TrEMBL record:
Record protein name field: MET23 protein
Family listed: Belongs to the methyltransferase superfamily. METTL23 family.
Residues annotated as signal peptide: none
Recorded GO MF terms: methyltransferase activity
GO biological process: methylation
Entries under Gene3D superfamilies matching the protein: Vaccinia Virus protein VP39
Methyltransferase found in the keyword field: yes
Domain of life of the organism encoding this protein: Eukaryota
SUPFAM superfamilies the record matches: S-adenosyl-L-methionine-dependent methyltransferases
Gene it is expressed from: Mettl23
Highest classification ranks of the organism: Eukaryota, Metazoa, Chordata, Craniata, Vertebrata
One Gene Ontology CC term in the entry: nucleus
Keywords: Methyltransferase, S-adenosyl-L-methionine, Transferase
Native organism: Tachuris rubrigastra
């Protein structure tokens, strides 16, 4: 992708996360969903089409990505879906005034290691405000040296690995798309770690 704004492309991880959202569609009506780093917003759009109350977000510093979110909503006749500029690691008025959430979505947000802590700082902030919420995230394995394990411990977060075969996403072609292809995609659900005594 020649454009530095990676959110202008539907990455394979987005297709896999959208498949997970679709597999859980019966639990979504009325649930409050926030997609971070939404870009073309495939998982968030699927959640909205399944009846969730969705808010899409991308960096306030990437107006083309925010416009991409809006365009995806228009193409899917989702005129009621708000689009917010939320920058990872930054406590902004938009972040502080965000309505409660049940599910946070993020596909391929763990793309650049320099952003990992900012992402998890934002996720921790959201989960502290919404202790029963979960962060559903997919990512493409790009380097065996990249890990968020130490950061999860630092921010008192835990992760559960979700096998792709458990929701039919272990195929080379998925939802009539060859995007997942031979890419190594992983999925995990991140939540607050339980403190001792609770």
């Amino acid at each position: 992708v020649p454009d530095s704004q990676y959110g202008l492309y539907a990455w394979p991880s987005a297709v896999v996360l959208a498949q997970y959202v679709w597999a859980h569609r019966r639990s979504l009506p009325g649930r409050r969903v926030l997609e971070i780093g939404a870009g073309v917003s495939l998982p968030g759009v699927v959640a909205a089409r399944c009846g969730a109350q969705v808010t899409l977000s991308d960096s306030e510093e990437l107006p083309r990505c925010l416009q991409s979110c809006r365009r995806s909503c228009l193409c899917n006749r989702l005129t009621h879906v708000p689009v917010l500029g939320l920058t990872w690691g930054r406590v902004s008025p938009e972040l502080l005034s965000l309505a409660p959430v049940d599910i946070i979505l993020g596909s391929d947000v763990f793309f650049d290691p320099k952003d990992f802590e900012d992402i998890l700082t934002t996720i921790y902030f959201l989960l502290e405000k919404n202790p029963h919420a979960q962060f559903w995230t997919t990512y493409q394995v790009r380097s065996a040296d990249w890990s968020i394990e130490a950061l999860l411990c630092k921010w008192n977060l835990r992760s559960i690995h979700v096998p792709l075969h458990s929701f039919g996403a272990d195929k080379e072609h998925l939802a009539s798309s060859s995007l997942p292809g031979r890419h190594t995609i992983e999925m995990m659900i991140i939540s607050l770690a339980q403190s001792e005594g609770t």
